[in-house]
Amino acid sequence: MSQTTGTAERRSFSLLEIVYIGVCAALLAVCSQIYIPLPPPLVQFTMQTFAVFCTLELLGGKRGFCAILVFILLGAAGVPVFSGMQGGFSVLLGKTGGYIVGFLLTALIYWAMTHFLGNKLWVRITALVTGLLVCYAFGTIWFIRIYTSQTGAVGVMTALGWCVLPYLLPDAAKMVLAFVLTGQVRKQLKLS
What we know:
- With 192 residues, this protein is mainly alpha-helical.
- It has one domain (3-189): Arp2/3 complex 21 kDa subunit ARPC3.
- It is 73% helix and 2% strand.
- It has 8 helices and 2 strands; from the N terminus they run H-H-E-E-H-H-H-H-H-H.
- It has helices at residues 3-11, 15-32, 48-76, 89-92, 97-117, 121-150, 156-163, 168-189; strands at residues 35-36, 45-46.
- It has a two-stranded antiparallel ribbon.
- Helix 5 runs antiparallel to helix 6 (121-150) and helix 6 (121-150) crosses helix 7 (156-163).
């Protein structure tokens, strides 16, 4: 086997990795259906961020990014994987679409930080927290833009009160739970 063939093979995913990516995309879809509907304009409370945290902790940045991308592409194609059994590109263009796209930003940040700083616990925690904050920021900017075009102007602090502040503690709890559960799963599956 030549050097270039071996390098090309190392860049592709194994069948088992593809299965893990699919399973985590399915986990995202299932966790999207676990939600508490809240009155508009509040963003409904879902378990999507929990699934994002689990996916990245289980698969790492590169494979985790791919799983989140598969989830989003399925939803964009019309498969009802988004909360409330919704699907279609219109969901991504809606008020909460920025948070869904923000999951990819979270994955990219996690991937970059763990790649350059290592896979130490403090790096992974910092990467998830930073990624979540970027997701909040991106999603809130998106929300303000769509809300303003559809309903009327809304201030940043009002949007944060509707879309971010009520979710800080629940998302922190989901992150802790994800670290505990994925630690056990990684041991059982011997994931690296």
